[in-house]
Write a structure and sequence with these properties.
single chain; 249 residues; alpha/beta; Rossmann fold; 7 strands
Length: 249
């Protein structure tokens, strides 16, 4: 069975795209076939994997709008990618009168379930149509949360949105847990926020905290997963543990 995991948080700057790349790479290193989907009009995932959004002849936008096959770019650090570009900005207008538009991504992903073990979806930093499509297409949702006060803001809105999806469009959706991001154990506030995350998601999995580290930015600039850029970085073990947890889902 293919696990399709939507990485969702309506706030930007939480390290979501970096998490998608690094978890995907850890899974690929274990021998799994991994497909990454960029559903953000800013195309951060596409850029991270050194693909120029401006040069694309087709993107995930075209597949969603026309129902054509996904334009897959293969062999990027052992992963495959469905890239994005600015065309996604117009998705709401393009599908304004389309019935069951929230199922469009699910429809184009279904033929690839026999090809890939994991499909990881990088959602935009909002709870609009693109995130809704991603949640409908997913088997699981993973929630990266920055370990500061703002990181907890909007968590109830996110849980409410997931609840609506569960009730109406994807009752099989499972919560794969939360990932505390940019954690600094030296800061009292970070430790308190981590406690709140554990309380909020206590009945689900709260994965290993990802420490704050400039090397994540440096790896992004090098267009490499952290384990490639700096294999002995202590955060690599946290990423490896999260990937192992997802194997058990």
């Amino acid at each position: 069975m293919t696990l399709t995991i939507a990485f969702v948080n309506q706030s930007g700057g939480v390290g979501k795209t970096s998490l998608v790349v690094n978890i995907g790479h850890q899974l690929a290193e274990k021998g799994y076939r991994v497909l990454l989907i960029d559903m953000d009009s800013q195309a951060s995932l596409t850029k991270y994997l050194d693909v120029d959004p401006r040069s694309l002849e087709e993107s995930v936008f075209d597949a969603i709008i026309t129902g054509s096959d996904l334009p897959i770019q293969a062999g990027l650090h052992k992963m495959d990618l469905v890239p994005a570009n600015r065309n996604l900005v117009t998705i709401d207008a393009k599908l304004a009168t389309t019935e069951a538009r929230e199922f469009r991504l699910q429809q184009v992903l279904t033929p690839h379930h026999e090809i890939y073990d994991f499909i990881l979806i990088d959602c935009p930093p909002n709870l609009g149509l693109l995130s809704l499509m991603s949640l409908v297409a997913a088997t699981h949702v993973l929630i990266p949360i920055k370990t500061n006060e703002k990181g907890l803001e909007g968590a109830d809105d996110l849980r409410e949105t997931i609840g609506v999806v569960l009730q109406r469009a994807n009752p099989q959706l499972k919560i794969a847990g939360a990932v505390p991001m940019m954690y600094d154990s030296r800061r009292v506030h970070d430790r308190l926020t981590l406690e709140e995350i554990n309380k909020m998601f206590g009945k689900y999995t709260v994965h290993s905290a990802i420490p704050i580290a400039t090397d994540f930015d440096n790896a992004w600039r090098a267009r490499q997963p952290l384990a490639v850029f700096q294999p002995k970085h202590p955060a690599v073990e946290s990423l490896r543990q999260i990937a192992s947890n997802l194997e058990q889902m």
